[in-house]
Amino acid sequence: MTAHLLIVDDDEFYRSVTQEVLEQSGYTVESAEDGLSAWERINQTPSKFNLILLDKQMPRLDGIELLKRIKSDERFKELPVIMLTADNSQENIIEGLAEGAFYYLTKPSTEVVLKLVIKNALSDFLQKRELRILLGLQANHFNLLRRAEFCIQTLQDAQNLALLLAEVSMNPNRTVSGYSELLINAIEHGNLGISYTEKSQLLREDRWANEIETRLKHPTYAARVVNVTLEKTTTASIVTITDQGDGFNWPAYLEFSPERVFDLHGRGIAMSKATSFDKLEYLGKGNSVVTTVRLPSSI
Question: Are residues 60 and 202 in the same domain?
Fold first, then answer.
């Protein structure tokens, strides 16, 4: 299915040029001249757009205010928004990321960078949408569960377990992306030893998934597993995820960082901490993370 994009920018020339570039890449593209016009389109057809390219400074309703409106609406929480700005102030960029922007692009950006960022944003969106669709297909008897232990190795294992843990949390739409993010981190960065810099390069070259599969078969990593324990009390669902890697500098990833604002990844832990869990805590060297979700009856 062809992705449907919306460009929101008061610069008519920029809208026209960008729309032409993206249509030549196979996307279906519409445009709006300000935030209010864009919101009217988005609100009237909630399932129409797969991604928004949003200028920061516009009349009537600026980009940040539209971003807040989109992300505060349950229908659009997973809709990726790429902010466009000529202002590369780190403070303003971090504000946008904290409000839920997927990425910031400074204007003007090259076609290569624009297309790469859109491709990664859409991939992330489709993965999250698939998880949402699969929610509810799990067995519906998790209210009986009190403790469980799991071992996973692959990305498919991570998705399947994220769905189960989300159902147990009794707030699956909130938690499923967070569990998925942490489980995938444990596999790729922990067990398989893919560094932050290596992942950046793999994403730019569209080789990330292939590298995961290659390392899973390598003798150095083939026997490694991620151990996951679930404990459910009367008030909370507590999940501990432990990989067999060397750990990492986890404090640097708990909040949005100015040094990583233009990277294609690196915000998942901060987003999970902010939106998916009531508590997220790394232990020791960082190869073990504990998440806590308060159960609805205890809130």
Answer: no
The rounded distance, in Å, linking the Cα atoms of 181 and 16 is 36
DSSP state string for 211-227: HHHHHHHSTTTTT--EE
Residues 6+ apart with CB under 8 A from 180: 127, 128, 131, 158, 159, 162
Domain around 109 = 4-132
Q: Are residues 90 and 220 in the same domain?
A: no
Quickly tell me which residue has 């560094």 as its tokens: 195
Token representation of residue 127: 């993965």
> In Å, what is the CA distance from 90 to each residue of 95, 118, 257?
8, 21, 9
The pTM is what?
0.75
What CATH number is associated with residue 173? 3.30.565.10
Task: Quote the number of domains for the chain.
Answer: 2
Cα dihedral sign for 181, 224, 280, 296? positive
3-state secondary structure of 89: coil
- The conformation of residue 278, written as its DSSP 8-state character, comes to S
Query: Would the CA dihedral through 228, 152, 127, 186 be positive or negative?
Result: positive
Q: Is the peptide bond before 59 cis (omega within 30 degrees of 0)?
A: no
The count of C-alpha atoms lying within 13 angstroms of the C-alpha of 208, restricted to the half-sphere facing its C-beta, is: 21
Of 116, 132, 148, which one is at a domain's C-terminal end? 132
In the listed set 71, 105, 132, which residue is the last one of a domain according to the structure? 132
Q: Which range (46-60, 116-130, 136-150, 190-204) has the least confidence?
A: 136-150
Lowest mean pLDDT segment, chosen from 104-108, 197-201, 213-217, 273-277: 104-108
User: In this predicted model, what pLDDT tens digit does every residue of 229-283 receive, in sequence order?
Assistant: 999 998 999 999 999 999 999 999 998 877 776 777 888 899 899 889 999 999 9
Give the model confidence (pLDDT) of 118-146 as tens digits. 988 898 888 777 777 766 555 455 667 78
